[in-house]
Write a structure and sequence with these properties.
Elements: H1 8-21, H2 25-38, H3 42-52, H4 59-74, H5 85-98, H6 102-114, H7 123-138, H8 148-158, H9 162-174, H10 179-195, H11 200-210
Helix pairs in contact: 1-2, 1-3, 2-3, 3-4, 4-5, 5-6, 5-7, 6-7, 9-10, 10-11
């Protein structure tokens, strides 16, 4: 479903965003609440709840409205809604992370990563993908979240080592922490390992990563 700029709920949310940009947080909150109060269908309620979550003072209320937005989205049977799920899951995950529930946060970050294929190309999609990747690293569950691989890539860039970069970078850049992404990265590292192309020190590091 597409956002209709003439929809009364969308108009109120747009006004709220403008007020928020001007630093008028209370005005923005009031406009978002009005949008929720007049919502007549699940799409309008999903939209209003998404914005209501933005400027809640209590982190528990942020979680509440992000969950409401997700639940309302789940009731909308339209393929165009798929593109919203990465950010919806990301928002719920961030709410749990803020409340120091890292286990629950990671569950939603993984869901965000699993749905990232539905993101559109362009800056918005890139921003959400980056947010998901960083979130998974913060919650400490990605196999390659440590600095070892980052340091290797930095060294190869400095030394202009195109061969290992060409093998690793595609899988590294697209890695959001899903099982499929990690398998691709592991496969790339394994292939680099068996080529025995690297010097002794770097070879040892790569070998240890794929064990």
């Amino acid at each position: 479903m597409q956002f209709d700029p003439d929809n009364k709920v969308v108009k109120l949310c747009a006004q709220g965003m403008q007020a928020e940009a001007e630093g008028k947080t209370d005005v923005a909150h009031s406009l978002f609440q009005q949008a929720w109060d007049i919502a007549e269908n699940d799409f309008e309620a999903f939209t209003a709840a998404h914005y209501l979550a933005r400027n809640q003072k209590d982190p528990k209320d942020v979680l509440k409205w992000n969950v409401v937005a997700l639940k309302r989205a789940n009731t909308i049977k339209d393929d165009s809604m798929k593109a919203h799920y990465p950010s919806l899951y990301l928002n719920v995950g961030k709410s749990y992370e803020t409340l120091n529930d890292l286990k629950e946060a990671n569950i939603y970050y993984q869901l965000a990563a699993d749905h990232s294929t539905f993101l559109p190309p362009g800056k918005y999609g890139d921003m959400i993908r980056m947010g998901i990747g960083e979130a998974l690293k913060r919650t400490g569950t990605t196999k390659f979240s440590n600095d070892i691989l980052d340091d290797l890539i930095s060294k190869w860039c400095e030394q202009k080592e195109l061969r290992p970069l060409s093998l690793i970078l595609p899988a590294y850049i697209s890695n959001l922490g899903t099982e499929n992404d990690l398998n691709k990265l592991t496969s790339a590292l394994s292939y680099l390992s068996v080529t025995r192309y690297l010097d002794e020190e770097l070879q040892r590091i790569v070998d240890e990563l794929v064990v």
